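I have been asked to look over a protein record a colleague put together. Alongside the sequence sits a line of tokens, each denoting a local backbone shape. Please read both lines and tell me whether the tokens look consistent with the sequence. I do not need a full report, just your reasoning and any doubts. I have pasted the whole thing underneath without changing anything.
>
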Amino acid sequence: MKDLDHLKLPRAGETSSRFTKEQALAAQKFHQTLPGYSVTRLVELPALAKELGVKDIFVKDEASRFGLNSFKGLGGSYCLFHLLSEKYGWSGKVESFAQLKDQIASLEEKPKIISATDGNHGRGLAWICHLLGLRCEILMPAGSSEERQENIRKLGADCRRTDGNYDETVHEAERFALEDDWLLVQDTE
């Protein structure tokens, strides 16, 4: 039987070896340097709290972050930052958006970015690639809405629907990255 220990989530009070406190702080530090960054607004839901018999309920409102109307504006940007730092040996030398942009500008050949998405991850990734001047290709599964595709295109990315479902589209993005030397920035394993 295949070892599945890597899929186990930590129990309450435990930490995960997959994402340490240091990594979380580094991600926060990077995010705070992004143009237009602000702390996420919390919306109080007193009626729901009363109905459920709890003191307070707050919900993070990500809809206005960076003007994307998307709840995944940060993950793709940090993942891209991390992957580029690893690829080019910038780890520990590049810590901010401005430093990342400068390093990318100094490259003779800019990396090309690819991903598969149902919408939100691709939108956030298209946004950060646009800010960094990187070419970005987003693949979407069959049945994805034209509106979602158009929202990604408005951010400067090439976006096309595949004939497959989500998992098949992820595999297509992986193949494309390997065959054409693109950097895959995916929000799945």
Observations:
- The two ends are 20 Å apart (CA to CA).
- Residues 114 and 153 are 14 Å apart (CA to CA).
